[in-house]
Structure formats: C-alpha cells, structure tokens
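Progress note, sequence design subtask.
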C-alpha cells in the first residue's frame, strides 16, 4: 500500500490570527535583533579577534632597501662548538625515515637527473654558515642585521646558530654513505638572508652611525674554544665535532621578530620577500621567523603585519612558494586552545595570511602534534619538529648538531622552525619535478597529498591538512593535473617468466605413451563390438 503524501492542514480562524500576531511581533523586534556585518565580527570581550585577516592593501608594500632599518650592535658572542655530546652520524634522523625521503629523492633523481639541483630556496633567518656539506651551494642574499664580522658576504654569518640548521634540513648533503643525515633537496642552492638575531640589539647611542657589528664573538675556531672574542659566548648545543644550536627552552625555539632587545622587524621581512619576488631570486622561500602577538579583540592589524601581508601576496602572485613556521608557544605567545577557533588568543605572522602562505605545524615521533606547535585556522600542513639533527652552525665545524645548551642545560633541538624546512624542501622537489605548476598549485598539491587528519574536510587547526607525504606529492594524479604535468616516461619491463625445465623428458614420454595406448585399446574395443553386431544372425520373424 503506497504511503499517502501528507498535506498541510488548513488553518482555522484562530490559527490565522496566531500567525498574524507572530508576524507582527517579529516585525516589532526585528530592529533590535539586526546586527551589522562589522559588529557581528567583533567579540564581546578582549579574549581574541576573528582569525580571518583584513583585506590585503598592496599600497603599503615596501620597497627593498637592501639593509637594516635600524642600527644594531652585537651584544653576545656567536655560537661555539662543544664536545660535550656526540651525534651518531650513522643514524638516520627519525623525520627522514617518517617521511620516506629516500624514496622521494629516488623518484626525483630518476625523473630529472638530480635532487632539486635546478632549484634555489631563499632562507630568511639568522644567516647561514657556509658549512662544507653545502659544497658551496650557499649564496648571499642580503644582510639586514649588521655587517658580518667574519669577512663573509652578507647573510653568510650565523651568530645565533639557527638559520644554518634550518638550511641544512633543506639542502645539507654529506656525500658520505656513513652519514645518516641528508637534506630534503640535497642538490638545491640556498640563498641566505640574515634578517633576525638574538645576539644583536638596537644601538641607541647618539654616536652610532653605521650598521657595523662589534668585534668579538667569533667562536668555534678551536674545538670547544673561544678565539679571542670580547663578548660572552652565545649558548650553543653539543655535537660530534661541534654542536651548536639556537637559544630555546623546553617549548622549542623562542625567538620572535620585533622582540625587545633583539634585531629583526616585520618591515625588513616584508622588504626581503618583495625583493626576492621582484628579482626572481628563488622559487621557494622558507621563513622560520615569526611575530606573535595577543589577539586584541578589535580586529586591527599592525603596520608591519599589513606590510608582510602585502609582500606574501605579491610573492605568490609572482610564482613564489612562501613557507612559514606556524610558531611556538611561549609566555608571550599563548596556545590557541579556546573553544572558538575563530577567536584566537594569539595571532602569528606570516602564518596568519594563509591565502598566500603555507604554514607548517610540528609533530613529534608519535605522529601527534607537538605540544609547542601553535594551533590556528591558518595551519596548512605539518612535519617533524622534534629531536632534530642538522648541520652544526659554528664557524669551522664539519659535523652535525642535535642539542642546544642554555645556562649549562642541554636540550634537544625542536620547534616549528625545523618543521618548515622539511616542507620547503618538498616544495623544491615538486617544483623541480613539475615545472609547469605555479606557486599556488604547488601548495595545493602538498596539501592535497598530505596524510589528512580524521576531521571534517580532512583538516584541523593542529596539523592543517595533515603531515606531508613527499612520495605522494611527487607521484599522485590529482584533479586538474591534465596538461600541467609531464607525461610519464615509458619504462621497458623485463619479462618475469619462470625458468625452463631442464629435467628428464621420460615422464612426459611415459604419460603420452600411456594415453596413446588407452586410446588405441578403446578403438580396438569399439571395432570388435561393431563387427560382432554386424555378424549376429537376424532373429526377427520374416
């Protein structure tokens, strides 16, 4: 029996009167319930502001001055080598194994002949020491802190010991099978910009007229020693033949742009990003530098933030993949653990501008999000960020680092700063493999092939679209790839046939003979029966 479609009941006089009264009541209350779009985006308290940044204003995009915007002087000596701890060079760092970088590198090398050899990655950080395991693949991009005191071009002094470790994850290449560590794109070229330093501070003296760093602090010429610097040495880490590292606490790297008593501003960061895009110096930028502030609740954007927003938009529009660390929790950067993710406690720049930036959170060895990794709607993907092993950044070092030392206390190297270069390295491999993809398509490919979390839409505010999958990013066929990717090269596959049987043929002969004998016996039997029937006298009546 078919179910009958229900029909609405007719309203009686009382029902119609009720509807009229209800409509009149709504009309009276509507003016009080109306909320303008602007006020709808304002929280009622100062706990946070909406996570979506204001519209981009390209008119504030600064030009690249090519140098610092303030005069800085060195206050702390550069990182030193230390022999307090050994780095087992034959151990493959867990992050490499987790991401199966060896397989990804084999794929790229088979397709292009190198592992990112045609790519340049800009590292905007504390500078990069020309470690021998770069094989001379580090170029000077610019100096935005102070004139180097080691005689190297701008950007090629790393007093803090941070940028070298970041660059090592991208392009370090020991060229020694005994060493387990290797960078993601070990044939790529690094362009180094020194833009931030904890070891420098603004020079407020009245007679300061240059951006020259003060002498001293050139540590690491001798194992564990100090070679005549007049400044107190920077805290560093331990390694096999020198293991220095960035200053950090147990939460990870705590450096910040525009942090009081340090060098580096959002303004110079925006200048550098624009300069890279305008000069076409690199197709990938890694920024393991952040500015974190409390969300003030009114949606305002600071001048420096607006400049960085315009700069990353300009870079993406000019085919540059911009990768940034998601930021680390600290006293000045509380975790975004509030109920409403759209009203964060902290806003981190550049990750805030997710339309044009691929922001990277950190995971630990369990595969879960690291406790120090700042959450937010802007997080794009995640990568390993704990128990880091990379190149020792001390001057004169030829080995690896895996520890930092603060006030005599050793701690492992960790932070979203070191998750970001894993992603920047993968971006370089994707750009090498698929040169027809533009910057935004490269980012989409990395996000689409990540190991998505079990969340609506395949993303959350902890790891974004998930942990990167380099092999999938290099091999997956995605919607929209038609005409963008090079056709696969045909590969001749050798036939895998079983080996010929070289044994005796006697069993086969016996089998065939037996079969033939049986057939012959059957034929004889049929012939005999036919003859007997034909010769039998006819017994039918006549």
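Output:
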């Amino acid at each position: 029996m078919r179910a009958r479609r229900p029909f609405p009941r007719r309203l009686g006089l009382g029902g119609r009167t009720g509807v009229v009264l209800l409509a009149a009541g709504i009309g009276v209350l509507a003016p009080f319930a109306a909320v303008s779009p602007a006020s709808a985006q304002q929280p009622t308290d100062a706990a946070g502001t909406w996570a979506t940044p204001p519209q981009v204003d390209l008119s504030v995009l600064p030009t690249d001055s090519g140098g610092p915007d303030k005069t800085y002087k060195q206050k702390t000596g550069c990182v030193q080598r230390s022999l307090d701890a050994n780095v087992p060079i034959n151990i493959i760092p867990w992050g490499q194994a987790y991401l199966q970088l060896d397989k990804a590198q084999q794929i790229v090398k088979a397709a292009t002949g190198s592992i990112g050899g045609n790519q340049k990655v800009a590292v905007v950080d504390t500078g990069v020491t020309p470690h021998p395991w770069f094989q001379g693949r580090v170029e000077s991009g610019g100096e935005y802190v102070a004139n180097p005191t080691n005689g190297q071009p701008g950007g090629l002094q790393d007093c803090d010991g941070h940028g070298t470790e970041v660059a090592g994850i991208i392009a370090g290449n020991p060229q020694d099978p005994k060493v387990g560590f290797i960078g993601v794109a070990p044939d790529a070229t690094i362009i180094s910009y020194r833009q931030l330093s904890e070891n420098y501070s603004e020079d407020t003296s009245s007679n300061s007229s240059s951006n020259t760093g003060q002498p001293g602090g050139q540590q690491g010429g001798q194992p564990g020693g100090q070679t005549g610097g007049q400044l107190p040495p920077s805290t560093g880490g331990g390694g096999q033949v020198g293991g220095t590292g960035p200053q950090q606490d147990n939460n990870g790297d705590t450096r910040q742009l525009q942090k009081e008593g340090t060098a580096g501003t959002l303004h110079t960061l925006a200048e550098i990003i624009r300069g890279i895009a305008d000069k076409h110096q690199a197709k990938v930028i890694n920024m393991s530098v952040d500015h974190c502030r409390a969300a003030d609740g009114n949606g305002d954007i600071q001048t420096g933030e607006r400049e960085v927003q315009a700069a990353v938009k300009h870079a993406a529009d000019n085919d540059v993949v911009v990768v940034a660390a998601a930021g680390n929790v600290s006293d000045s950067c509380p975790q975004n653990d509030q109920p409403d993710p759209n009203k964060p406690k902290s806003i981190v720049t550049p990750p805030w501008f997710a339309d044009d930036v691929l922001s990277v959170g950190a995971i630990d060895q369990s595969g879960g999000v690291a406790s120090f990794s700042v959450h937010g709607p802007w997080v794009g993907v995640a990568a390993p960020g704990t128990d880091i092993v990379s190149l020792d950044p001390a001057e004169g070092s030829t080995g690896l680092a895996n520890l930092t030392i603060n006030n005599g206390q050793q701690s492992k190297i960790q932070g979203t700063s070191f998750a970001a270069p894993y992603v920047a390295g993968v971006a370089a491999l994707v750009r090498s493999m698929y040169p027809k993809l533009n910057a935004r398509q490269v980012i989409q490919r990395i996000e689409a092939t990540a190991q998505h979390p079990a969340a609506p839409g395949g993303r959350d505010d902890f790891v974004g679209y998930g942990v990167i999958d380099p092999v999938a990013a290099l091999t997956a066929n995605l919607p929209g790839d038609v005409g963008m990717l090079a056709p696969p090269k045909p590969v001749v596959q050798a036939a895998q046939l079983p080996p010929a049987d070289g044994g005796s043929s006697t069993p086969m002969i016996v089998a065939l003979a037996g079969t033939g004998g049986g057939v012959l016996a059957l034929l004889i039997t049929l012939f005999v029966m036919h003859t007997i029937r034909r010769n039998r006298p006819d017994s039918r009546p006549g």
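Residues 506 and 512 are 10 Å apart (CA to CA). Work on this subtask will continue into the next period as scheduled.
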